[in-house]
UniProtKB/TrEMBL annotation:
Lineage, opening ranks: Bacteria, Pseudomonadati, Pseudomonadota, Alphaproteobacteria, Hyphomicrobiales
Source species: Pararhizobium antarcticum
Keyword Oxidoreductase: yes
Transmembrane domains' residue ranges: none
NCBIfam families: PRK10754.1 (NF008024)
GO molecular function, one term: mRNA 3'-UTR AU-rich region binding
Protein name: Quinone oxidoreductase
Enoyl reductase (ER) domain ranges (all copies): 11-323
SMART domains: PKS_ER (SM00829)
Amino acid sequence: MAQAIVVRALGGPDVLKMEGITLQPPGPGEVQIRQAAIGLNFIDVYFRTGLYKSAEGLPFIPGKEGAGVVTAVGDNVSRFVVGDRVAYASADGAYASERNIEIAHLVKVPDGIPLETAGAMMLKGMTAQYLLNQTFKVGPETTLLFHAAAGGVGLIAGQWAKALGATVIGTAGSQDKIDLALAHGYDHVINYRTDNFVSQVKEITSGKGVDVVYDSVGRDTYPASLDCIKPRGLWVSFGNSSGPVDAFNIGVLAQKGSLFATRPTLFGYIATRPALEACANSLFDIVQSNKVRINVNQTYALADAAQAHADLEARKTSGTTALIP
Ligand code: NDP
């Protein structure tokens, strides 16, 4: 019998409980996979608490990301065969030892990348890909600020932005995290729990401000993030780790220097097969070039998903985290 974490009521980490589940054979357009690793992502917290609503209501199996080996193939599937090593970042129901999955979500994992790494890097890595290469085209002329620099997305983004030639400023909540971020591409890292990051950014940029701020912290860094941006620069609000930005008045963009703002999500950038493959291949390429190293800094047994969520929310984790079935 397959094992899965099933959420039967919204709430704190303790609602994440392991159960045995009966898996049907894969349907048309689906394959069945045995999972080697499942990615822990902050979005899993939003679904657990109810900040984001699960399409299927309660109960649901959380998680969007994983990697494993194809064990059975449904009708009308020619792209994948039994034995393929595959990964995904956009399919609900990831917290399971085995699962069925629509092939629209799947890509093949290159031989050089372990499944344990792939399972924890797809969502965060493709997010770094689109943020730095599509939402804003980062290059040698770019100076950027990336909040939560030592987090899962943050450590990948720092290395990637450095590989693109940018000047990379980060924020982090402890000295250990600052040191980690400095070792992963960041030129400057500010402790935003003890220091005023706006004045520090102004100092680093000689008063000019940055071209783009990537803000996944949300409530605690808004509206200060806007004060770090140069006139006509871009505010990318892409997460809510401290809570959502509630009272956003579009007029603030005029007051702060004719700024641009966007609130993107990965799923809008990998919605078609060509877009998914381009984004995933770009990630695989940069990982295989060693310009971006994936730090799976925490692994937990899938049964300990509650502890993993508690640690993520308590800001105890850095880099990426894998749940192992
Ligand atoms: P992280 O590993 O970055 O963990 C979150 C980090 O945010 C913490 O480690 C902590 O770092 C920082 N943080 C600041 N304030 C708080 C707070 N009040 N509570 C908890 N953490 C806080 O998570 P992920 O890499 O999984 O995700 C990073 C962010 O990016 C999330 O907000 C997520 O929702 C978002 N995201 C958005 C995507 C999109 O396409 N829109 C896709 C993927 C992720 P520190 O201690 O240094 O402050």
